[in-house]
Write the structure tokens for this entry.
Amino acid sequence: MPDFKKTIKLFLMDFEPTKRIKCSIDGTTCVAFKINREDLNKSKDRKELKQSGIYFLFGGTADDSAKDVVYIGQAGARKNGEGLLNRLLEHDRNPKKDYWNEAVLFTTTDNSLGPTEISYLENYFCVLAKEADRYIVKNGNEPPIGNISEEKQCTLEEFVHNAKLILGALNYKVFIPLIEKGSNKKSNATLYLSRLNRQTGVTVNATGQKTRDGFVVFKGSYIAKEDMKHIPKKKYRP
């Protein structure tokens, strides 16, 4: 995707940044709504949410994992005139999907997403989220990609790009891996630790790397449950 500058508009629907937010990008038909679970019923008058589209359900840490969770779904417009919001209300009543507390819904200003388009987008977003490995993706099965023309695929690639920008602006890093793809664990940026804990007699070995989010400890590292009172002085050779 070309590196064009974008203007993202965030409209505070309830006068507060922690409540409902409408998101759009100048020059595109992509529109999104960030809605807390508790505010679903307040959104029944939004005609855009009666259309077809894609939605993301976000929740807190699952079990003993440090990762948050996400569920990615699609909703088609129904004969009764309901679409995206009605699908979320169904999730709200489902006790098996009680892990989420925030949702981001994507549709278009011209209602141009049909069954083929939303199937393609749901598959694409699920694959991207699993590759990033930032969240636990709660989808049980990978959705089918559908049969789509190369012309329509080109159009939807732009929609995906815009949706990623909006999610990033809302601070949902579902498509941003902790370690960037170009990063190499064996490079000079990787830090190593090997230390004998005198209290337990256990040698702690660990590796990690600084990132823009803080510090990432790599899988396979060990940690001592007992802290030492101080780190002994040691001379290091350059």
Residues 8-169 form one domain. The chain has two domains: 8-169, 179-238.
